[in-house]
Each structure stands twice: as C-alpha cells, then as structure tokens.
Amino acid sequence: MVPLAIILMSLIAATALIAIASGDHAGGTADLSIPALGAWFVGSIVGLLAYSWFRTENAKRRMSRVYSETVFRLPLIALGASMAGWFIGSYGGFLVAQAVARR
Known about the structure:
Layout lengths: L1 H22 L10 H30 L10 H28 L2
Helix pairs in contact: 1-2, 1-3, 2-3
C-alpha cells in the first residue's frame, strides 16, 4: 500500500529533520531553521495528505467483494503513524514560530 509507505516515510523524515533542527539549536536564535520548516511540512502536511489518501483507498478496498482484513490492523497503524508525524511536525512548526517571534 503506497499511502501507508508514504505515511511511514514522512514520520521517519520528520523525526530525522527534528533531530537535525535540535542539533542546530532551532528556535533559540532568530535564524529560521530549514530542517524545522521541513519537519513541519513533511510531518504535518504530507503525512496528513497521505493519511487522507490511505483512508480513500481503504474505503475502496472495503467496498469490494473480495476484501479481507489483514492480521496487522493497517488503518490503526496508519492512524498512529500519521498522528505521531503530525505531533512531530507541529513541534517543527513551533520551532519555526519561535524563530520568527525572535526577529
């Protein structure tokens, strides 16, 4: 499932970008942190768009006659990963807002 892979990749990318931004002391200076901005975009925007795509595709699969539930509850995994990505992306947005407020 492509949307689930995108959700998981956006979670990993946002986590890595926040780690880089924290190493650069993002939010502590007036300089705008590009990794924090990237974490906000990837975690909050891309992750949520991929989650909506996942829900659409999952609804199409459920309406088919040959639908079978997998052992791994994919909707629950997608929801958890997109929520985690959103929280991490929100922290990136918080770091960007701190830098803008210091200007």
